[in-house]
Every structure is written in structure tokens, then in C-alpha cells.
Design goal:
CATH class of the largest domain: Mainly Beta
Largest sheet: 8 strands, antiparallel
Shape: globular
CATH topology of the largest domain: Glucose Permease (Domain IIA)
Distance between the termini: 88 Å
Radius of gyration: 25 Å
CATH superfamily of the largest domain: Glucose Permease (Domain IIA)
Structural class: alpha+beta
Order of helices and strands: HEEEEEEEEEEEEEEEH
Strand content: 35-45%
């Protein structure tokens, strides 16, 4: 009888030890993930470089209605998972024209990702991208081009585009729940919050 009690006691202690070990392991995993998420958020929200003058920059969409999703981590409206949103969503009526934020050269065109029909333009250290546009990317005798015939838009790879020029129209291509422009900004290859840039632009115009 005594031996049976000893065995039960040892088994009970063993289960408590394993439970404690499991809880401690889970706590460490949760803490690690929390720290990594915080570090990613800090890295993603680096301060925006101050430009001497934003007078040449253009607000990127006509008929603007509202900011519908900001820069940072969010619950994706379609997949439902938590992920980084590397841009700013600007709602506007379907077909509203999109304007080039800063003069630069077209360095990328595509129409086969979650970004939908998109343009990427490089302006020195800055790279700006425009997603969910109308139209398609086609091969022409002049090379790859984004073509939106109904909107009168034809942009070619390598083309130099002045600030404020119409470069596309707000559409619903790619992964989207409504008509809007997803506008992304990178400085030296790192995504930054476009809202910070807009605040600096408008501060200089007041």
C-alpha cells in the first residue's frame, strides 16, 4: 500500500513538473513572438527623411474620399490573417484618375499579383507604387506597357513621368474589397508610412 502511494505521488509530481515545463515553454514562445512583432513594427515605422521642399510633390488621387486603411499591421480584409500593410489606402470613385506623386522613371509594371494592375516609379532614393489600377500590362513594339484604353492611359517601362501627371485610374484589380488606390512609398528600399509624407507636404503649404 505504501509503495502504491509513493508511485502515485511520484506520478502526480511528474505531471505537475511537465505541466509547468509546458507552460513555461509556451510563455517563452509568446514572449518571443511579441518582442519580434514589436521590433518589426519599430523597424517599419522609421522616421521619414525630411526633404528640403515638397513643393513638387502631388497628392496621388483625384476625387479623394477617405483613408480606408493605414500603414502597419492589420487584419487582412480578405484572408483574415494578421499581416503588415505596407502602404496607405485612399478611397475614390471607380475610374478616378491617379497622379504621379513625384517625377521619376517607370521601373516596374505588373498585373498578376494581389496588388492587381500596378506601377512602380523610382525618383532618386524614393520608390513609389500604385496598386489596383484599371487596365492591363501588355507587350508592345516599344516594350512592356500599362494600357488603360478607356482612360487614355499608356505608360511604358523606362518612361520618365513628371510629377502630377495622370498615370492610371482607380480600379478593383487584385485583392480588394472596393475601389481604392493602394499607395506605397519606399526610401532606400525600406517601406515607410505615406501618411507621414503627406503631413510634411501639407505642412509646407499652410
Amino acid at each position: 500500500m505504501f509503495n502504491l502511494i509513493v508511485r502515485i505521488t511520484r506520478s502526480f509530481k511528474s505531471k505537475i513538473y511537465l505541466s509547468g515545463l509546458l507552460i513555461a515553454t509556451l510563455t517563452l514562445i509568446i514572449a518571443h513572438n511579441f518582442i519580434i512583432t514589436k521590433l518589426e513594427a519599430v523597424q517599419a515605422q522609421q522616421a521619414v527623411p525630411i526633404t528640403a521642399s515638397w513643393s513638387q510633390a502631388s497628392f496621388p488621387v483625384e476625387n479623394f474620399q477617405a483613408y480606408t486603411s493605414g500603414f502597419g499591421y492589420r487584419i487582412h480584409p480578405i484572408s483574415g490573417d494578421r499581416r503588415m500593410h505596407q502602404g496607405l489606402d485612399l478611397a475614390a470613385p471607380l475610374g478616378s484618375y491617379v497622379r504621379n506623386w513625384w517625377s521619376g522613371q517607370v521601373v516596374h509594371l505588373s498585373d498578376h499579383t494581389g496588388c492587381g494592375t500596378m506601377i512602380r516609379i523610382k525618383s532618386g532614393n524614393w520608390t513609389h507604387e500604385y496598386c489596383h489600377l484599371m487596365g492591363t500590362v501588355e507587350n508592345t513594339t516599344r516594350g512592356q506597357a500599362l494600357i488603360d484604353r478607356n482612360g487614355g492611359i499608356m505608360l511604358f517601362m523606362g518612361q520618365n513621368i513628371p510629377a502630377g501627371a495622370r498615370i492610371g485610374r482607380v480600379g478593383m484589380t487584385g485583392s480588394t474589397t472596393g475601389p481604392h488606390l493602394h499607395w506605397g512609398l519606399m526610401y532606400n528600399g525600406r517601406y515607410i508610412d505615406p501618411a507621414d509624407v503627406l503631413r510634411q507636404m501639407f505642412a509646407q503649404r499652410i
